[in-house]
Amino acid sequence: EGLWMSCAMQSTGQIQCKVYDSLLKLESSLQATRALMVAAILLGLVAVFVAVTGMKCMKCMEDDQVKKMRMAVFGGVIFIIAGLAALVATSWYGNRVARAFYDPFTPVNTRFEFGSALFIGWAAASLAILGGAFLCCSCPRRETSYPPTRGYPKNAPSTGKDYV
User: Fold this and answer.
1) Contact, 46 vs 78, CB < 8 A?
2) Where does it localize (predicted)?
3) What does the alpha-carbon distance between residue 4 and residue 20 come to, in Å, rounded to a whole number?
4) How high is the pLDDT of residue 97?
């Protein structure tokens, strides 16, 4: 059973999937999980476009490097928000599966276990948060109060009489 359809495996090994009949018949937690996943996907797409605008290799906003770097940081923040939305959705659904599995009133033949979609969702959320954190680390640094670095003084050509 997933967010979008319910599947059943037959004893012959065939899997039959059926899309949920009505959106209004679904539990509120399932509807909220769907909404979070859709929001995470849309936020991820927006984050890609914003972060690409802030890349150094792009010609867009080439004249102001500080604004360009801020766009990359803003894209990273959106990635983190998208990753958190996906993480909440997958964890919420995983909690639902675990509670139903350990519920003594759930029939044995209708108990569900964690599927590959949950693990993919957790990995995708983790990667989105990690990528957003990396983009946020590219924040432009403020000017330091240190004096500017000076090179070594250039030596005058030796006349040959400079012995010690």
Assistant:
1) yes
2) Cell junction, Tight junction; Cell membrane
3) 7
4) 86
